[in-house]
Description:
Elements: H1 3-28, H2 38-49, E1 61-71, E2 87-97, E3 112-119, E4 125-131, H3 141-150, H4 162-171, H5 175-184, E5 196-197, E6 202-205, E7 211-220, H6 239-250, E8 253-261, E9 281-294, E10 314-316, H7 320-337, H8 348-351
Antiparallel strand pairs: 1-2, 1-9, 2-3, 3-4, 5-7, 6-7, 6-10, 7-8, 8-9
Helix pairs in contact: 2-7, 3-4
Amino acid sequence: MSRANLILRLMAIGAVIIGVAGLFAYAAGWLRPRALTPARIADTFELVSGLHPGVRRNHAKGVCVSGHFDSNGQGVALSKASIFQPGRTPVIGRFSLSGGQPYAADAPDTVRGMGILFKLRDGEEWRTAMINLPVFPVRTPQAFNEQLLATRPDRTTGKPDPAKVTAFVARYPESAPAMQLIRSRPISSGFENSTFNSVNAFRFINAVGARLSVRWSMVPAQPFAPPSTSDSGPAAKNYLFDALIASIHRRPLEWRLVVTIAQPHDPTDDATIPWPADRPHVDVGTLTIDRVESDDTSPARDINFDPLLLPNGIAASADPLLSARSAVYSQSFTRREGEAKEPSAVSPAETAR
């Protein structure tokens, strides 16, 4: 090879490397200083809640669980994912409270989360992170980041600044009806009788290639009960988790996995809008939770419940929150895996009772 050809090849290789580096820099926001990136959203969580090494930036407080899912076969017509074939699938998961403070006291109106990893028989996984809200309060990642800042508790009052909240709603008017719906929902007494919703839309693809837009819910077999209003003194700091742990030790807990099917004009890219109640609902099986562990001892502590880790037969919709959630979850996972672990607020001794 001549010297000139060698120089040209080296220049071409260098150009490719520079181009790839530029793409990474662009994605990370280095070339767009004011761009909203996954790292910046993770930074916002840390700004609002403080830095707590080794724990999730959101849904920091939680307990880990395991059990199984029994498919009844009714989902086969909807999706070719093997999870819907009749039979049993092991699961591992986590119940949690929203927010980045792992030692915050439990409160009835704090958003509750259920993360589940289905270990499919063909080696695939399905991960889903659900919450006990009927809709999500914002439509876009930018609105979510601004909501975190607008609802940050004031250091003096311990409550959000009403002027900032008002300004946020004026900037994102679609959030007002969503927040009203969230405030008007009935709140159950605990995790064990909460309904958990995917909130975001997804797409099911069946064996003949037909596609359906869907959302799903985990509907509890445990009967609904409102939070206690008895005046028996201050509640224990972990009372919601303590009640969940006691319930699992008494008997396995069950939820029905119910899939809601959209009609053609139902929005699939806006999680603030509920679908009409008359949409078809299909009960595709039963989730059973029969074991509980502390974050300190369970492998679920290190599971990233990425909503885009989907099996063949389930795909993402165009909802912009999905890709943002996936990216921020990854950012949170990377950060906490490089940090020393703080002990969980719900200890191994507490989950062993």
